């Protein structure tokens, strides 16, 4: 039986342990202190946040300026209180006396926690000094000017700027500062001419007329964002003095107006600024450099956009040293300089920050508190908010500079510890606790029930314990204790077994014990066979664009084989498998289209989730070199820059380096990079010639035997060159005589980069030869390249000069003058005795001409004599058909001008329109104009020629053994088309067999059938137009016959037009991919209800319609269209029938009751036979007697009308022609000329592209011509098969027209 006192002792111990585990010293949450400065307005409310954790719940109090606040005192008078639930201090309303340094305290029975100190400041801004009258400043143009500000005291510091005054009252404003209030003021823009110093004074480094601001006042403007209030200083008015026109020539040397402190203290991680303000005219170019040849870190060091300021961000210790600004404008020989010295120190930063510690009874605890800074920071310890020197002296506590240690801890040692690390630039504050606990040992996370591991690996079996003091852990395998050798127990309790073997499989148990209790847990370990790579990948060398392949194979424990996986690394990083260019297929890695970026070390990893094996291989890709790195501007001078870069052997991509390419761009063309030089392969620096007044960037490419690499990143620090006078005057100065009564001067405009300074302009001076007056013209747009000056002369000499100038001056070398001429005018003389050359025959396409030469004196030519122009046009179509042929003048061999030549000028004109009546004349030309008048006009006619190519030629249907071909008439007929020749040749690969002529087609045909071809064969088809003179140009197409195994396309019936004893059937051939068309088409038909089909004896090849005849009146029929290819019994024979359709024939006595079979089905289409409209009427109307009688009467009337027309035409032919010739201006008695008019001109009559479309040139006595005038239908518009051919119809010759007329009469 357990003694009573033992049970009581156990219960007391349990209660004590429970209580010990639940208490905790207070800890203030530092995250609530977002700022260490709090600003307030008088009578407003202030809240200083504070919140803490601890058990028991902490009690809050506040310290102000080192003394604890009594929130109940009369001095506080109820204005200060704590917000319920937290320690936040509220002051309402706030007074001026509330300024101070505040610190929050949180206490409970186990310690006191202190917050960081917070500065509470009253926001205020004093007013500017009051001035009654504005200050008027009268600087000279091009000089400098300073506007003083004198800003008032402000807490926090006010933002200073300058405005052009508008009527906005000072004081508070309620709108959002960052948006709306910016629009209330017209702020002075700061740029490379107008800037401010750090005291708020405004500097204008080069006064210009626009600085007067139309008499408005400059005002210094201060803005306290915390108070949301602004103030305005003294008004200042600028009235510049001087001549604006002379300002560009008022050169002022560079002068230093102001610079910031020479010695600058910079803190690590912060930003420092240097500023130099220079004046001068032209505006100085300001550059910055680091002394002792050190380069800028372009990522952190930059010159401001206004150029006056140099900024270093995130300052580092290595930035310490000297920096220099310089200003130069070309007026003085040397720049003006100032040097700054940067000293770098640092606020303290943590190297070892104290952490909260929870320790058990009898254990030790050590707090570390260390920091770095410049100067070296001081460390100070506090216990429960009091300096450690004032805390109770405990022998178990020791401390030195950065370490505080407690030994043999007791429950009463729980407390809060503070550490302060500080130097003159700032401090670090840490508030941590020491919590002493007594908790029984417990296993929180024991071994896994089943843990698998691969042999030869190390394995860790978990046993994470809890308890204070820290429990002691021992391990067992079965009942055998484990220690030493391959077994290691970690401080947290885990067991580590090194080099696991198969025999290590088994059950493992961990046992934890401390002063207050014990616990245990167990699990099973299974050891698997190790994974090994049996085939390692080989090294690969590839050429840019080729594929690279690695192979890798492994084996593993049979129980884990299903989990075996392969992964790849490149240079130690996971390789992205995109299955596009980088592909993994089981044991292979394929890199397609390899490039230089693929070069590297590739690692194959074979793993099963338990272990892995790795093998390595290298891929080397020969490719264009990688870009050079660290391209740096070493020196930037007025006319030259020095650039350095880094490039090592690893970047050449395994191909010998050939050279580098140095490229640059400028601010004038930032997207255009130009080649400056090509340094050799050993170079790592280059000098580049520069132009003044430009911003330059530089980049470098490397070149090897494979090719040119990608460009480097350009240098970060821009090279800015100073202003200078232009290097040269414009080039290519000349005069152009294209405008009469003007002296037109042209030159090559200068590039923007050649201007070299602001204020650029051209000065054009002209002086008439032999006169003293010189006129000047200023052009201030550098892109202009032409000046038109009115004069009262024609082609007279002038002395012309074009100069380039800018605000610095003009080029050192004087501009060259040229002799130019005023504008030319139309020649006053025209050639005479223009005629056909009797020694040259007029051919179908050419004619020769001759004429007398003209006087080529410049006063007569009114310019430079260039020669002649022959003008040729079709008769009566001059405006639309004229073409000109230039005949150049050939000067004498000795260069002298002959006043009047006696020999005729001869010329032959090619490319004339054949079979046409033409007219021609000749005119005189100078460089820009032709003579006012032309010569006499010559009339002539060209004989018949050969036609041009047809307009188009295509295969509309393609079968396995045939083509249906279609074409347009020739664009230029050049005579009477007599027909077409169709030829073809078989194409075998790149070889063409002999051309065969398939057939000769008459002139009216535009469609034909070419059969007897071989299936699946390429053919080249030719088509020529013919006249009596022969073949014209060929038009060819390449077409392939369909394969014989391809199914036939199924015809589709479009329309059925029935008559009493026949029907017109129209179908189409659908163009379906993978199908061919038949060679022949038949109509199958049968009476409705019968089984057997009848086949119409005639078949169609080219046409898609046919007339089905010999039908019975009033009968219902079924029809179908059957496409066939080849002959029955042949291997390539095939046929395909359309869907069935029904229709009913018409006729008198037909059954009009509702039929038992389907009625006629009619489909509308675009292409119809010529009689479709005629047959479209209802069959009942066609068979009606009254309708037939009416048609007979109309036919008789038409016949009578035609006879009357013929008689009238025959009676009046001669008079008709003679009258027309007189109206035309020709003499009908001139037999020769009259016979010329009798020539037939049927090629292209009425066509826009023909040389002659006058229908009255048709042969007389042509009956068809007479009928066309009366509007009769041209029967040539219908083919022999009855289909309408429209645009495909050909023009008719004389015989054709007569035959057509007779056909109409019949």
Could you list some keywords that capture this structure?
disordered C terminus; mainly beta; six-stranded mixed sheet; extended; 1306 residues; single chain
Radius of gyration: 54 Å
Query: In total, how many beta strands?
Result: 96
Shape: extended
Low-confidence stretches are: 5-20, 170-180, 1148-1183, 1212-1306
H/I helix tally: 10
Average pLDDT works out at 84
Subcellular location: Membrane
Pfam families: Bravo_FIGEY, fn3, I-set, Ig_3
Protein name: Neuroglian
GO molecular function, one term: cell-cell adhesion mediator activity
Description:
Residues 26-115, 127-239, 253-325, 348-435, 440-528, 531-620 form the Ig-like domain. It comes from Lottia gigantea (Giant owl limpet). This protein has 1306 residues and is mostly beta strands. The chain is 8% helix and 42% strand. It has ten helices and 96 strands. Strands 2, 5, 6, 9, 10 and 11 form a six-stranded mixed β-sheet that branches. Strands 13, 16, 17, 18, 21 and 22 form a six-stranded mixed β-sheet that branches. Strands 24, 26, 29, 30 and 33 form a five-stranded mixed β-sheet that branches. Strand 48 and strand 49 (517-528) form a beta hairpin. The longest helix is centred in the last third of the chain and has 27 residues, at 1185-1211. It is extended. The chain starts with a helix and ends with a helix.
